[in-house]
Design goal:
This protein is α/β, with parallel strands linked by helices. The protein has helices spanning about 15-35, 35-55, 55-70, 75-80, 85-100, 140-150, 165-180, 195-205, 220-230, 250-265, 285-295, 300-305, 335-345, 360-370; strands at about 110-115, 120-125, 130-135, 155-160, 190, 210-215, 240-245, 270-280, 295-300, 310-315, 325-335, 350-355, 375, 395, 405, 415-420.
Length: about 425
Amino acid sequence: MASPPNTAPLASNPAALIAEMAARARNAQKTLAALGSDSKAAALHGAADRIMASEAAILSANAKDCSEAEKAGLSPAMIDRLKLSTERLTSIAAAVRAVAELPDPVGQIIDTSQRPNGMVLGRVRIPIGLLGIIYESRPNVTADAAALCVRSGNAVILRGGSEAVESNRAIHAAFVEGLEASGISADAVQLVPTQDRAAVGAMLSASGLIDMIIPRGGKGLVARVQADARVPVLAHLDGICHTYIHEAADAAMAAEIALNAKMRRTGICGAMETLLLDARFPQATEVVGTLLEAGCELRGDARAQALDGRIVAAMPEDWDTEYLDPILAVKVVDGPAEAIAHIDRHSSGHTDAIVTGDSAVAEAFLAQVDSAIVMHNASSQFADGGEFGLGAEIGIATGRLHARGPVALEGLTTYKWQVRGTGQIRPA
C-alpha cells in the first residue's frame, strides 16, 4: 500500500492544508469519474473486505473513543451513536456493499428532446466533483459517505468530529486500502488529519476548490456551516419529528407506532420528538401510558397532563427541541387542521407522520405537510436511506433545492446538457 502524503508540515496552516488536499482530490476525481460502473463496484467490495479484515483495529480505536466520551460526560444516547460492535461493523461493511450494487447514476440519461430544427438535446447525470463532508459522532458516516462518493464518481474530503477521531481514522485507513488494491488513488477519499476547528473554516472558505459542503450533525454545526460557507451547502438540519394520532387511528397501531418512533433508538434524527394527540382519539391515555411505562419522560400541555399524572408541564421551548433522549413533548389538538398548523410552526422539515384509518384525512396530511418526508401509518424511524432502498445515505436534507429527504447516489450528482446537431446555425 502506498504511504499517505505527509501533511504534517501544513498542520499549522489549515488553509494551505485544505488547498493541498483539494488539489490532490481534484486530480484523483478526474480518473474516478472516468471509471466504469463495474470498476467502482469492485473497489467498494474491496473496501468492505478491508473494513472487516481490520475489525480488531477498528473496534480497538472505537473503544478509545467511547472511553474518552464517557470521561467527557456525553449522554448515553450520544455514546450509543458513537459505539461500534462486531454487528455494527458488519452492518457498515454491508452498507458499503449495498452501495456497490446500486445502479450507477453517472451517465444516466434523464431525458431527451428534439428541437424543430433537428437538434437533439439530452440531460445526462454527472458527478458534482469534489465534496467536503463535515460530520459529528457517528463513525459509520466515514464509510457511508466515502462509498456514496466513490460510486457517484465524486472525490471527497471528510472531516469527522473529535468524539470519533480514532474510529474515523481506522475506518478510513481500511477503506482506502481497499480502494488502492483496486487501482483507485487514496487521494479520492481523504480524511482531514487534524481536529483543529480552523480546518473546518478552511473547508468552508474553499470556493473554487470544493464544489459542495455537506454538514451532518447537530444544529450548532449546521448553523455554523450555513453562516460561514463560501461554498454551496446541502443542509441536513435537526430532526424535530412529529407523529399525529388522528381520531380514526387504530388504538393498537397508534401505541405501537408511537413507542417505536420514540424509543427504538432515541438518538437518531428520525426519532419522534413531539406527539400530537387528537382530542377525539379515545385511547390517548393508553398511548401515553405505553410510553411512560417504557421509561419515556413526557412533557405536555394542560390537556395532555390531564391524561396521566406522570406527565410534567411542557415549556414553550419543548415544542422546538430535538431531545435525542427518552423525552417527548405531547400536545392535544382539535383535529387535523390544528395538528398541521402546529407542525408548520415547529417542525424542522425532516419527517412528520399521521396515524389514521381515514384515507381522506391521510391524503390531506400528506399533501399539506411540507416536510422532506411525510408518512402515513408508519414509524418516523423509517426515515433512512437504507430503509428507502437507497443504500447508505449522507443524511436527510431538509431544504428545498437540489436534493431532499435521504441523500444518496442521485443526490450527489448534477447534470449537463448534451446537444447533437447536423450543422445547425442560429439565424441572425
